[in-house]
Amino acid sequence: MAYYVNRNIKMTWWERSYIPEILKGMLLTSRRFFHNLFGFVPFFLGTTKERPIMTVYYPEEQVQYPIAYRGRPVLAQNEDGMPACVACGLCEIACPAYCIHIEPAEDSGKQNQYERWPEVFDIDYAICIFCGNCEEACPEEAIFMSDDCEISMLDRKQMLYTKEQLLVPVADLQKRIEFTRNMYAKWNY
Amino acid sequence: MWVDLIITLAKILFILAILVGFFAPVLTWVERKQSALMQDRVGANRADILGFTVLGLFHIIADAVKMFTKEDFIPDGANKVLHTISPVIALVPALLTFAVVPFGGQYTLFDKEVNLVISDLDVGLLFVFAIASLATYGYVIAGWSSNNNWSLLGSMRTASQMISYEVTIGLTIIGVLMVYGSMKLTEIGAIQENFWMWGIFLQPLGFFMFLTASIAENKRIPFDAPEAESELVAGYFTEYSGLKFGMFFMAEFIEIVTIGALMTILFLGAWHIPFLTTATLLSWFDFLGTTGSNLVVMFIHVGVFFAKVVFFVYLQMIIRWTLPRFRYDQIMKLGWKILLPLSLANILVTGLVILALN
User: Fold this and answer.
1) Distance CA B132, CA B138 (A)
2) Which residue of B has its CA nearest to A60?
3) What is the number of other CB atoms lying within 10 angstroms of the CB of residue B3?
4) What is chain B's mean pLDDT, rounded?
């Protein structure tokens, strides 16, 4: 449907002078100006925490990302310092960009011993596309997307994170773990 | 003789210091910060010295350093001489206008009459517009000598716009002249000691037309067609960089102050406080002696004058960040079809009223 603009609006002489509209516009900008100007003063005096302007001073101030945010994937680390990963390789297969490289290690698997764990677990963030498929594929709740998105390096080699760099204590990941459980339960995996 | 020379030099230095040293740099900061506040942003605050940002005031220093250290680029095929001198031609008139603009009245200091104007010309008002028109040459030459299509288009627009609106300004001023009967800016200021003789009451239409036309003269939004960045890259100063570009910019900011000062003197009671005559003020500070009381009143008057100038500067900034740009034909239409007949009618009505009152 075409939209027709009525250009034959009859304006009075006073309206055609545009002075009232100009004054209205100036009043609006002035109001914003003074509102923000005096809104800043209590903030800088430290009496209020809320700044009237939403703009964030980025490097100094950080925004709390929503829990669904997919930052860089990290490995969950159990309380005893071992990764929760069992090196099954499902995330390696699920990864559409082939950025994960796993080399498993095995042991007898007696009581209180780990049977299988990754000897090498590398993620190349230069290749990673942050799709979250690894998190979805993982049967052991071992790999999770974190809210860290500041992964810029001066060299590509530094983008290759090894197991030690990837490990994050499980306690820090509880929110995301709960979120993934809720999300993937919907599809009945 | 020597005392007069020293007083004149002091006045010149004061004007230069307050224009180039205070208004021009601070206005660059104000324009950024004010627009940011109006649009719910934070504004410039990254330049810091030892971790202190002081609300982004150091951006002035950063700007100056940038201007001085940038490459001074002259494009291929440009006329080097004209390209170099045109920023000067644009900047000098802006500064020169202040030679006849009084920023205070007459005071007796140490048995000597001190008039707070650099040069008290009898044709002060004519001088202002004669000099202001000269700035047009700077802009036209800048666009012409740059060897750039956008610059040329911008300078053509500048020429036509400035000439069109100068007509309006000239005719508006005639109304003011008829009311006050003087071209001396100091006299016009002195008459407005009476609150009801302020130009804004005697010439209300002239006030609005003068404001509109002088913003158009200064080529600021909403009349910024000559440097419209979305149409012509930057208009006449597209090919300028470094300090030459800075001079164009400085000319613009100084002209804002000049317009504010002229509006103050012609329409808003110059350096006078409403309902407070100079004699009353002097009698308040009588206990300080002649020189002392005059000195105090002088500082009060200069302060009041610049407060009014700051108000007009603020008004122009508000207008600049509120209104969208006029289309080019709309600018011409406003200038020739609306403001020109209105200013002629203003003269007619003013004349009839003066005739009736006499």
Assistant:
1) 11
2) B46
3) 10
4) 84
DSSP β-bridge partners for residue A75: A143, A167
Q: Is the pLDDT at B134 greater than 70, yes or no? A: yes
- Within 10 A of B342 (CB to CB), how many other CB atoms are there? 18
Instruction: Please name which of B212, B227, B76, B19 lies closest in space to residue B139, comparing C-alpha atoms.
Output: B227
Q: Do B40 and A28 touch (CB under 8 A)?
A: no
- List, run by run, the mean pLDDT of 10-residue segments along chain A (189 residues): 77 79 87 79 65 72 85 88 87 90 83 82 90 87 87 88 88 88 74
Residues of A engaging B, defined by a Cβ cutoff of 8 Å: 19, 22, 25-26, 28-30, 32-33, 36-37, 52-55, 57
Degrees, nearest 5: CA angle B267-B272-B276 = 130
| pTM more than 0.95 | no
Report d(CA B108, CA B116) in Å as an integer. Answer: 11
φ/ψ of A65, rounded to 5, equals -75, 150
Mutation site, B30, B31, B32, B38, interface A, largest A CB count within 10 A: B38
Interchain CB distance below 8 Å, B42 and A53: yes
CB-CB contact of A166 with A120 (8 Å) = no
Contact B42 A55 (CB under 8 A): yes
**pLDDT score of B191:** 83
Task: Say if the Cβ atoms of B37 and A28 lie within 8 Å.
Answer: no
Which of A43-52, B25-34, B283-292 tops mean pLDDT?
A: B25-34
* Cβ atoms B48, B58 nearer than 8 A: yes
Extract the tokens encoding A112.
């209180």
Q: What are the angstrom distances between the C-alpha of B320 and each of B220, B222, B329?
A: 7, 6, 19
